[in-house]
Amino acid sequence: MMVLISYDVATGDKDGQRRLRCIAKECQNHAQRVQNSVFEANLDYGTFLKMKSRLLAIMDKEKDSLRFYYLGNNWKHRVEHIGAKPGMDMEGPLIF
Amino acid sequence: MMVLISYDVATGDKDGQRRLRCIAKECQNHAQRVQNSVFEANLDYGTFLKMKSRLLAIMDKEKDSLRFYYLGNNWKHRVEHIGAKPGMDMEGPLIF
């Protein structure tokens, strides 16, 4: 199954910065980064549930958010990418 | 039709910061912000195409990226949100 995962992490303090690193690392272990905070995970259901459980354990539900989009089987027809591909320095500081 | 829009904008210079503001504003005009750089647009096809055209005119295809996920009619079953809702101060500086 293909799942799109996007996250916002409140990085105003050191604990938030730690959560951001941990969530990004967990996603990188199981999914492909397509943008800074957007990953695509093509996993069997059991593996996805384990990953999701770990993400929920890391996040602070009062401050952070996670979104999962279950793209189904025909997901390739649902996605359009325009512009630059994700760079290598995704963990560096970016100011939005 | 429901379309998920996510973007990365290279904000290392003033022009990038301008593009980010313009893209965010264009998205806010037609879509609901669900995370910092993630919007959901429930639009008729013609309106979506006009919006997409404006976004493409703003972005720098060498530096920025836009992704569109066409979620189809049963999109409500495809989305799961966990944690904090988007705050009001989405245009303020956030350090990732």
Description:
- The structure is a homodimer of 96-residue chains.
- The first copy, chain A, has 96 residues and is an alpha+beta fold.
- The longest helix of chain A is centred in the first third of the chain and has 17 residues.
- The radius of gyration of chain A is 14 Å and the shape is globular.
- Chain A starts with a strand and ends in a 13-residue tail after the last strand.
- The C terminus of chain A is likely disordered.
- Chain A is built from 2 helices and 5 strands, in the order βαββαββ.
- The first copy, chain A, has a 4-stranded antiparallel sheet, with helices on one face.
In terms of structural class, how would the helical and strand content of chain A be classed? alpha+beta
Q: Give me the number of helical elements of chain A.
A: 2
This entry's quaternary arrangement is: homodimer
Shape of chain A: globular
Largest interface: A-B, 42 and 42 residues
Count all strands of chain A and give the number. 5
What share of residues are in beta strands of chain A? 25-35%
Q: Rounded to an integer, what's the Rg of chain A over CA atoms?
A: 14 Å
| Largest sheet data of chain A | 4 strands, antiparallel
- Spans of chain A of at least 5 consecutive residues whose pLDDT stays below 50 are 88-96
The strands making up the biggest β-sheet of chain A line up spatially as 2-3-1-4
Strand and helix order of chain A = EHEEHEE
Global mean pLDDT of chain A: 89
- What's the end-to-end separation of chain A, in Å? 32 Å
InterPro entries (chains A, B): CRISPR_associated_Cas2, Virulence_VapD/CRISPR_Cas2
Enzyme class (chains A, B): hydrolase
Keywords (chains A, B): Antiviral defense, Endonuclease, Hydrolase, Magnesium, Metal-binding, Nuclease
Subunit structure (chains A, B): Homodimer, forms a heterotetramer with a Cas1 homodimer.
